[in-house]
Amino acid sequence: MTTPHVPGVLTPAQVEQTAASIVAAQLPSGAIPWFEGGHVDPWDHVQAAMGLSAAGRTAEAERAYEWSRTTQRDDGSWAIRYDGDSITDAHTDSNFCAYLATGVWHHFLVTGDRTFVETMWPAVGRGLDAALTMQRPDGAVVWASANGNLVAEALVTGNASIHLSLRCGVALADLVGSPRPDWELAAARLRHALDEHPERFVDKPHAMDWYYPVLGGALSPASAAARIDARWDDYVVPGFGARCVVPNNWVTGAETCELVLALDVIGRTDEAAALLASMQHLRDPDGSYWTGLVFDDDVRWPVERTTWTAATVVLAADALSRTTPGSDLFRGAGLPSLPRDWKVDIPCTR
């Protein structure tokens, strides 16, 4: 398989080195922690696995997905945090439960391996069903469950990501011959909330809340472009990347590369490539990536090189280079379309 690369920004050898830095942190169990010696969370673990798939490290990616399959709890959820083999935060995050569907669909796009999908399908289904136990009657999904009690707040980023995962889940369901129209309805209700009812979500100053509805496919092309334009100057720091939080003078690599992916979704590939180039100051000589930089002080913070940052760099390079079949993921390849003109609330049928 050809390695993703972006001429003038990243060579194939550099992308391979970045993938190797992720593998170096992977535990014997298959889990991929934030960094060597760090903790594991199920969402960033899947993101790291996706980066490995895109870089051609399919065996290591499948070891990561096997960890997800074997650590899933009886109710379909995963804990929020693992340190080694121990659960150190047993609460449940709805987006963490749903994201396995995105990762499995991505791996299928890259490899075409139906046997892998059939192995992972039960875990995908249970994960999405667990996430949807947290969907409110208004369509939004609350972000967490603590000690069996739902946390009331719904987050924009998490819901946009769940929207993408539901669409991936519907595609996987069709692939294995087990349609799930309830997931399609849940995705439509969620999309309606994101499109038409921002008041249903907690308003946060994070870049993710700005671009993730574009990345998660929850907006029409015109609305997506308008959303990016509206806050561009607030979040993008020329020559450095994207701020994580406004107004902090702190740029982060993963957020910058997710914005690259969002720009690619709306066809702004030149801007996306320039943005990918602008965050290469975070690259370490070993191919890993520092999480962020406080650019006024020229200080890297936090002082860690994260696997999920490295993985998102690889995914951005793949999307821009159109190298693997998985490069189309965030552009919605093979995913079901949902109506874009909901005018009234869709009633809850759960």
TrEMBL record:
Keywords carried by this UniProt record: Transferase
GO biological process terms, semicolon-separated: carbohydrate metabolic process
SUPFAM superfamilies per UniProt: Six-hairpin glycosidases
UniProt-recorded name of the protein: Prenyltransferase
Coiled coil: none
Any one GO MF annotation of this record: transferase activity
